[in-house]
């Protein structure tokens, strides 16, 4: 099981090592540029951290002219040199620094992919909610048609003295409430289109949405971005703890200088021109008062993040379970509504026969047909509700979705 985890985590890291065009294709060009610059920043930081244990080579040049205070002796001296003071042993610190740089890059790549996934998820959520609100608007139009029929019939009955004004007033108030609902839905559609335009240039009217399928629980728990980030961050802090600890352990430094010098003694026959070098080693053993506290602080940060892994895994199990329960509830609503539609089919046949026989009115048939259409739209709405839950699970582990 442990080897399976490391294999899956390795595959995740390979996939995270680049923000592909497919991941960004739905996003607007400005957002794509921002994310590409972020990736360049991650790569640059990685290179900086991976090599910052290398000391610089110091180049220097000099010229001097001297005159003796006791005589007329003069001399000129020119020189150029290169020197370096490079740690070649840090009690493991060099290896730890490289490992820290690699895991920090991995952690930031996971964050970048999660950002891309979040943006793509928002786009698909908006597209699905646009479709859902359109269906709800159709339902509202059908309900208003039924309210018009109800008001017409109750007005006739009121004029005939068969119902009191309360029933007619209730029907008018219900129509008013439905008109407000329709207005609110239109506002929602406008807001959703505006929200979509902020992050994408796609045209929702000419887009066929893909169908999302259920992510397996084990795959979700092993590859979800939050858990991947916590694991990677824990590993990063572990290497940072090793780096911190090694700074208080013995280190060995190679010191070297290579140069060229030209000495012109003028009046004296002691000129010199040629190369020179120095080489040596320095053993350092730092004795710092707060070393123990600093090391313990780094260790505590690592242990805290490591403990967060188990907590996050438990939280994700609950999230996955909740999504499954919601999906099952939506499926139940679809099943119940489908059964109701079969009843409506029987009622419509009976009403149509009554209309043909002259014992039923066309208003009854129209009302039932409208109600059946409302229920058919209800099935489509709950299918979208299922897709919204599946979208949430999909983009929790994957940054993109093919159209």
What secondary-structure arrangement, pairings included, does this model have?
Blueprint: H1 2-16, H2 21-24, H3 29-51, E1 58-67, E2 74-89, H4 93-159, H5 165-199, H6 217-223, H7 225-246, E3 251-264, E4 272-284, H8 291-357, H9 362-394
Antiparallel strand pairs: 1-2, 2-3, 3-4
Helix pairs in contact: 3-4, 4-5, 4-7, 4-9, 7-8, 8-9
Query: What is the CATH topology descriptor?
Result: Outer membrane efflux proteins (OEP)
CATH superfamily: Outer membrane efflux proteins (OEP)
* Overall geometry: elongated
Low-confidence stretches: 1-20
| SSE arrangement, N to C | HHHEEHHHHEEHH
Estimated helix fraction: 55-70%
Reading side by side through the largest sheet, how are the strands ordered? 1-2-3-4
CATH architectural arrangement: Up-down Bundle
Q: With helices defined by DSSP (H or I, 4 residues minimum), what is the helix count?
A: 9
Secondary structure category = alpha+beta
- Largest beta sheet, briefly? 4 strands, antiparallel
Subcellular location: Cell outer membrane
Organism: Sulfuricurvum kujiense (strain ATCC BAA-921 / DSM 16994 / JCM 11577 / YK-1)
Keywords: Cell outer membrane, Membrane, Signal, Transmembrane, Transmembrane beta strand, Transport
GO cellular component, one term: efflux pump complex
